[in-house]
Design brief:
heterodimer; A: alpha/beta; Pyruvate-ferredoxin Oxidoreductase, domain 3; 6-stranded mixed beta sheet; B: alpha/beta; Rossmann fold; 2 domains; 39% helix
Amino acid sequence: MTEIRFSGFGGQGIIRCGLITGKALSLFDKKHATMTQSFGPEARGSACSSQLVVSDERVLYPYITKPGILIAMSQEAYDKYESDLQKDGILIIDEDLVEPKPPRDNIKLYSVQSTRLAEELGNRIIGNLVMLGFFTAVTAVVSPEAMKKALPGLVPERFLDLNIKGFDKGYEVGLQTIGKKTTKTKRKQEITK
Amino acid sequence: MDGDYAIAEGALAAGCRFFGGYPITPSTETAERFSERIPEVGGVFIQMEDELAAMASLIGAVWGGKKAMSVTSGPGFSLMMENLGLAAMMETPLVLANVQRGGPSTGLPTLTGQQDMMQARWGSHGDYEIIALSPDSPQECFDLTIEAFNLSETYRVPTLIMTDECVGHMHEKVVIPPAEEIELVERKWYNGPKEKYMPYAPDSDGIPFMVKAGDGYRFHTTGLTHDERGYPVINAEQQDICVRHMVEKINNNAEKIIRMDEEGTDDPDVVVLSYGITARIAVKAVQGARKKGIKVKNIRLITIWPFPEKRIKELAHKAKAFVVPEINYGQIVLEVERCVSGMAKVIGVPHCGGGVHNPDHILNVIKEAAK
């Protein structure tokens, strides 16, 4: 069982991250996934989070207790949720938006300039997709094919290509980060997929 | 999709073509989904001026020939009680979902609770019986909404879906079968001679026929105690007939209506009984108890009202104790206590709302109960 928390501030598409990953896992990767989200006034503007419990069997307890993976796209979210992350967990941050504390308990830290890369691709609104691509590559919890299949219906149709571009960019940077450098042609395939 | 959306989808699959409501957190997503989807199938969505009017609009829509539903939570459920009683008295089939939040009053608009379980049964004044179902997942929100419509039409009774914020806002996979695989119960329409129609004359199965406004039948219906023609008769004799009919049409069919999931040994030390989201949490505690060698039977109520008295009485002879976790200060546990009637210990595991139980807490109570 894997517990994942996506966090950031309201408006960054944090809930959407949980929805996309949950749909990818439960419809296309044959896993069980349950998503819950922070809800109400606290979900708007300040630290916002969506939680995903992933399992090979039916998920009983719907909330996360000790997440193994934390994605933080804002300082406030990082400050609020970092202490929950379990020992040996994976921490993924937007390095332009989060200043991490010194590492603890063998937590693996991965950082990506998700918002900046999204701006370079033309729209910062897809920062969450860059982050999802990066997350997919470094954690391998979900397959990139399933993630891309999950996008239609969860992102506006006219921005589908842009969202896929964002995902691919994040995925590529993620693979580079963990040392599986892709060849140029492979990367090209990745982008055109 | 989330549980709230799944309720709307289940209703549409069941043939619901009228929604009248007054959106309230955490049930708003159901209304939102209806407003988007019901025009696609030629249905009507009306946001009414308040919950009283919402319930009244359903009754009108049903007597106009449609299947109708609404959704609410917390204070909205209280406001709907008056006209829910009217629907019960007029034997009007309709479906109301309550996505429960913590109360009383405005309480915890965004957080979960199971505190309206007794209100579901006794919320409106007077004697009547009602059917209430409790889904534990978005999938069951879909499935049980269809079942709620079927039961409601079968027994001409308002039927409640008693879910909660956690299930309502939880996103999981929902499988929607092809339309031809979904079994639907259609309304028992009257097609005899026009001058002979009586809206409250029981058929051989005890359930009276209905007609549609506009089809040329002339009849009367009222919230007052009435005879078979629907005309007020204000005396103790007619009251006895009227109330008995409303209560017995459900109680006499209770065994047909009641559904529950029962799992584990038939010779238990402890029976864990729960419903809705709490039933999922309880499974974790039951698994933990079995690891410790405790013989546990786990029961998940799907139908809350009518209550499965018979089965609980049977088990009361076998088990040492019943453990009843629920997200309220103790409601269904009282009903279990009544059925067990002193033959075994009955221990509630209350939670005042705002979250779900910690499975370890339930486990500790099971361990204690097994001693």
